[in-house]
TrEMBL record:
<feature type="transmembrane region" description="Helical">
    <location>
        <begin position="395"/>
        <end position="416"/>
    </location>
</feature>
<feature type="transmembrane region" description="Helical">
    <location>
        <begin position="56"/>
        <end position="75"/>
    </location>
</feature>
<dbReference type="GO" id="GO:0016020">
    <property type="term" value="C:membrane"/>
</dbReference>
<feature type="transmembrane region" description="Helical">
    <location>
        <begin position="187"/>
        <end position="206"/>
    </location>
</feature>
<dbReference type="Pfam" id="PF07690">
    <property type="entry name" value="MFS_1"/>
</dbReference>
<dbReference type="InterPro" id="IPR004752">
    <property type="entry name" value="AmpG_permease/AT-1"/>
</dbReference>
<dbReference type="InterPro" id="IPR036259">
    <property type="entry name" value="MFS_trans_sf"/>
</dbReference>
<keyword id="KW-1133">Transmembrane helix</keyword>
<dbReference type="GO" id="GO:0022857">
    <property type="term" value="F:transmembrane transporter activity"/>
</dbReference>
<feature type="transmembrane region" description="Helical">
    <location>
        <begin position="265"/>
        <end position="286"/>
    </location>
</feature>
<feature type="transmembrane region" description="Helical">
    <location>
        <begin position="95"/>
        <end position="113"/>
    </location>
</feature>
<feature type="transmembrane region" description="Helical">
    <location>
        <begin position="422"/>
        <end position="443"/>
    </location>
</feature>
<protein>
    <submittedName>
        <fullName>PAT family beta-lactamase induction signal transducer AmpG</fullName>
    </submittedName>
</protein>
<keyword id="KW-0472">Membrane</keyword>
<keyword id="KW-0813">Transport</keyword>
<dbReference type="InterPro" id="IPR011701">
    <property type="entry name" value="MFS"/>
</dbReference>
<feature type="transmembrane region" description="Helical">
    <location>
        <begin position="24"/>
        <end position="44"/>
    </location>
</feature>
Length: 454
């Protein structure tokens, strides 16, 4: 568990780290990762709500995002399988990044021609395809990020990733909503498809990381050799498929539990699975909440999203400094508390009869700051849990786990709002942040601060 004591570092020294080539590349790759996410999530929910789709249906359609939670199922393929021609040209990580980005362009262009009022099912299928391509891109980008920099730089890489990711979320919300209000949803999603080009150019320019396999990892790969020898009587294709499964799926899981111990590993997974419950369950109802309160798409774009860009950037930067100065675990605790408080602020906004644009701007800015501070610390934490020999599979395990419980719960978000109202809903989402904090505190007591495993 990465709970290392941070080395003393000035703010100026920390800022210089972001000017290095890899963190700069991570900024653009973070943008590419963040762009599609809300286009099949809250921005799509605004499109559906404007088309008079009921809130319960919107909540159910948020399960489109479950593709991100089940990416562990195909992460071993991204981790190990080559893509004909592309992998030889670009390498293992970049080839999958490019393939996913090209699929995103095609999917978003197809979505731009959708109509939820008459072809809701078709639009939902396209959204699933975009989410699948986006999740695949995430697998490859996460692996590239972890393998391209040492553990000491993962806080910087995480902050750069988060900054790019949040800028993309602003483009996919403020930008997409503004374009939709002025020119319609077709133009909005067409422009979003064009912005995927930022990721494509970056993928073509960045170098492929070089990964060294540790001695312990090499010994665990002996499981593959043992399997092939034991199954020598099997047909060759079946032996190869079985050997691939052992190396790509079994070894990464065995490695994680072996390095941490079974009990601690399960507690870590429990923490990972509960840390983002608040964000996911609240997020799908955010845009419907703004619209139901009476704000227009343009007001949401300018106030709720546009002003939030500044708070998001500040949250990412302060989160990066927090990891460097406080350490990963302390930064996680601070971030978790801030997220809970920001949801309570939404509850006060729902309780206020006429909150106005100023109230909306303050609450959303606080939420964006908290989300990004916590997110930067969380990414650095997850990065420290992986073994670079199994980066894609192990990180996909963590990222799938942290999103799955929240996405399962968010499907009922519309029902909670319809049944109890927005005030109770935001109180409910706030309490969802408590279990992860308790688990984190328990973990820190179980494992005192120590140097993180390289």
């Amino acid at each position: 568990m990465p709970t290392e004591a941070p080395a003393a570092r000035s703010w100026l020294d920390t800022l210089r780290l972001y000017a290095q080539p890899k963190p700069l590349a991570m900024l653009f790759l973070g943008f590419s990762a963040g762009l599609p996410f809300l286009l099949v999530f809250s921005t799509l929910s605004a499109w559906l709500r404007e088309a008079d789709i009921d809130r319960t249906t919107i909540g159910l359609l948020s399960w489109v995002g479950l593709a991100y939670s089940f990416k562990l199922l195909w992460a071993p393929i991204v981790d190990r399988a080559p893509i004909p021609l592309l992998t030889r040209w670009l390498g293992r990580r970049r080839s999958w990044m490019l393939a996913a980005q090209l699929a995103l362009v095609a999917g978003l262009l197809a979505m731009s021609h959708g109509d939820p009022s008459t072809r809701l099912a078709a639009l939902a299928v396209l959204a699933v395809c975009v989410a699948f391509a986006s999740a695949t891109q995430d697998i490859a980008i996460d692996a590239w990020r972890i393998e391209s920099a040492p553990l000491s730089m993962q806080g910087t890489m995480a902050a750069a990733y988060q900054l790019g990711y949040r800028l993309a979320l602003m483009a996919a919300t403020a930008g997409a909503l503004w374009l939709a209000g002025e020119h319609g949803w077709r133009a909005s999603y067409t422009v979003m498809a064009a912005l995927v080009g930022i990721g494509i150019v970056t993928t073509l320019l960045v170098p492929e990381p070089k990964v060294a396999v540790s001695r312990d990892t090499a010994l665990r790969e002996q499981r593959v050799i043992d399997f092939l020898e034991a199954k020598a009587h099997w047909p060759r294709p079946l032996r190869q498929a079985g050997g691939w499964f052992v190396g790509a799926v079994v070894c990464p899981l065995v490695d994680f539990f072996a390095r941490n111990g079974a009990t601690t590993a399960l507690l870590i997974l429990a923490f990972v699975g509960t840390f983002r419950l608040t964000d996911y369950t609240m997020g799908v109802m955010a845009n419907p909440f703004y619209l139901d309160v009476g704000y227009t798409l343009q007001q949401i774009a300018i106030v709720a999203k546009g002003y939030g860009v500044i708070a998001s950037i500040i949250g990412v930067i302060v989160g990066g400094f927090g990891v460097a100065s406080l350490g990963v675990v302390r930064a996680l605790v601070v971030g978790g508390v801030l997220v809970i408080l920001s949801n309570l602020a939404f509850a006060t906004l729902a309780f206020t009869e006429d909150p106005g644009l100023l109230g909306l701007g303050l609450v959303v800015s606080a939420d964006n700051f908290a989300y990004n501070f916590a997110g930067t610390a969380f990414i650095a934490y997850l990065s420290g849990l992986t073994n670079t020999a199994y980066t894609a599979t192990q990180y996909a395990l963590f990222s799938s786990l942290f999103s799955l419980p929240g996405k399962l719960l968010m499907g009922a978000s519309g029902w909670v709002v319809d049944s109890a109202g927005y005030f109770v809903f935001f109180l409910y989402t706030s309490t969802l942040g408590v279990p992860s904090l308790l688990l984190l505190i328990w973990l820190t007591r179980r494992l005192p601060p120590r140097a993180a495993d390289a």
